[in-house]
Design goal:
- With 197 residues, the chain is mostly beta strands.
- The chain has one domain: Jelly Rolls (Sandwich).
- It is globular and about 65 Å long.
- The protein starts with a helix and ends with a strand.
Length: 197
């Protein structure tokens, strides 16, 4: 009888701890990262546009990695460089919850001769279903020649238009670069991750 009570009490304690752990949000500490795109496992956007070709490449891979994602951009490009699309489903579940992280980081190598002004367009569930450009968050960024990391603050992702509110960081779905250009160049995406600073 005593043994049964001890077992039931222990089981109740374990279930309570598990239930509390599920109910609590993950506590992040400085330096914590979450990889959004597992390039070495072949994850990449395959949405090619007429003036952009996308492929998995062994060129310019990050140290210790096998692949990068190569975007070949043609002069006159007015379209987007899709990094993670809503249709891919890559930002469903854990990878779609950006809450608690401070920055979105994209490590890259760029073959352009000079700095390129671009826009990073970020969307949550509300922005993508159905797609509404007014509901995305847009950040002006600069893509520099050579090896670099594009780091964007995501702590307060306001939507493009006033009155639309902020992005739901628990339900992020995709992001892309809008890159008008006057030259042919290649962009090699080496890593894409969130970080707690």
């Amino acid at each position: 009888m005593k043994k049964g009570i001890v077992i039931l009490t222990s089981l109740f304690f374990i279930l309570t701890v598990v239930a509390n752990a599920i109910g609590e949000e993950q506590k992040l500490k400085k330096g914590d990262r979450m990889v959004l795109l597992k390039i070495d496992k072949g994850e990449m956007c395959t949405a090619n546009e007429s003036d952009v070709e996308v492929s998995l490449s062994k060129e310019k891979a990050a140290k210790g990695k096998m692949y990068s994602i190569k975007y070949s951009i043609k002069k006159g490009n007015k379209g987007g460089l899709f990094i993670i699309t809503n249709d891919s489903g890559l930002l469903r579940g854990k990878r779609g919850n950006w809450e608690g992280y401070d920055t979105l980081n994209i490590e890259y190598f760029c073959t352009a001769k000079s700095a390129i002004s671009a826009y990073l367009n970020i969307g949550d569930e509300k922005a993508y279903n159905p797609w509404d450009g007014k509901k995305q968050a847009v950040r002006k960024v600069v893509i520099l020649p050579g090896q670099n990391t594009l780091s964007v603050d995501i702590t307060n992702l306001e939507r493009t238009y006033a009155g639309e509110g902020v992005q739901d960081l628990k339900n992020m779905r995709g992001f892309f670069l809008s890159v008008p250009t006057n030259e042919d160049w290649d962009l090699y995406i080496q890593d894409v991750y969130l970080e707690k600073e």
